[in-house]
Amino acid sequence: MANDNRPADTAAAGEHSELLARIAQEAQEEASLLIAAAEKEAAVKKSQAQTKASQIKDEAVKRAETQIAAMAAHTDSLLAMEKKRALLAAQEKRYEAVIAMALAKVREAAGTNDYPDTVLGWLAEAGAGIGTEEAVVQGGSEEHTLLTSEFLAKAEKKIQALTGASVSLTKGSAPCQGQGIIVTAPGGRLAWDNRVQVRLIRMEQDIRKVLSHML
């Protein structure tokens, strides 16, 4: 009886082995699919990570470039401001030197033979500018001594030649401060200051314009 069951046992064992092999194969195939899917997902994530890293790098580069450009612009602005400040300082120094030199030249001219003609020109200019029929004339310490009746008469003629109007000039009782001439209308309601320092102030814009082209 025992020998009659061997073929059946052998067949069952074969079927069992075949089933195990098929299960193993299916498991292997499923594992391969899972591995392939995992590898694919890993590749996608790696690509996304690389893209993100590249974007972050590009953004960092752009930010750095923007910051560098802003720093360069700021530096250029500071340099331009410093250059302008230095230029203005140089112009101011040159202007002060020119004014000092002009004042020194005019002081040196006082007392020379040509100085009375210079004062006469200042007086005629002031008398014509004030535009009144009468005026009081004051001069600095040097100029006041020149204001004789004869000198004033010359000035009146020169004013009339310039404007066509007659004016009566009177010497003031006391000299004025500074070098030059001041012509004042009766009552002091109007005055034309033709002292050297004031004349230079009126000429300031023209002087600075000339100096700006020299630097």
Account of the protein in words:
There is one protein chain. With 215 residues, the chain is of the alpha+beta class. The chain has 2 domains: 1-109; 114-212, hypothetical protein PF0899 fold, CATH 3.30.2320. Helix content is 72%, strand content 9%. The chain contains 6 helices and 4 strands. The protein has helices at residues 6-109, 115-130, 141-144, 149-163, 196-202, 204-212; strands at residues 134-139, 168-171, 180-184, 191-195. It has a 4-stranded mixed beta sheet with strand order 2-1-3-4. A hairpin with a 6-residue loop joins strand 3 and strand 4 (191-195). The radius of gyration is 53 Å and the shape is rod-shaped. The protein starts with 5 loop residues before the first helix and ends with a helix. 13% of the residues are buried.
Give a brief outline of the structure.
The chain is of the alpha+beta class and 215 residues long.
Features:
215 residues; alpha+beta; hypothetical protein PF0899 fold; 2 domains; 4-stranded mixed β-sheet; 6 helices; 72% helix; 9% strand; rod-shaped
